[in-house]
Amino acid sequence: MKPQRCGLCGQRSGERRCPTLERWICSACCGKERGRTVRCFPACPYLTEAEARWRARRSRELAEAWAIWQKTNPELPWPYIRALAEILAAFLHRTFATDIEVEQALSDLDQALSPIILVSKAPSALGKTLSSALVPLAQEGKVDPGELRTAVKALKDWVSRWRIAEDDRRFVRALLGTFPPPSEEPTLIIRP
User: Cβ neighbours of residue 188 under 8 Å, at least 6 residues apart?
Assistant: First the structure.
């Protein structure tokens, strides 16, 4: 059987079957178009493998960048920033979001934590989710509202400076790589 040409570029040999397009494509087009012009199925093995590599790389970048950020800003509430990042990662494991959407969600959370409520527009879905999880903790006195709000503002500002146009999910991938989802494997308890 003669190898098929890539269904996207028509130049190279199509060596992988794209589950979304239902045709053979080359690895170069798969990598270039994945998540941009082709909305891949979440279970696509090529997407899963590439996303794991992206997350590992971005996680290392985040660790290095945060070490510098923490060193130059020791006055920030770092336990709150780390906890906020971990909570955000837990939500991001269940929903797709870009860095701009995370930045908007943090703005929404900042507004929800503000003692002065000015509603200019409805909060984003991720912003509502973050607010519903964290605002009650501040209202009940389980977390310091001022420290939490400072952490939210600092993280929002940092994300806006760290994100890049070439990867609209740089921060999201870094968080997902830094805070992987909890294992769904059941634990085996053996009693004597």
Answer: none
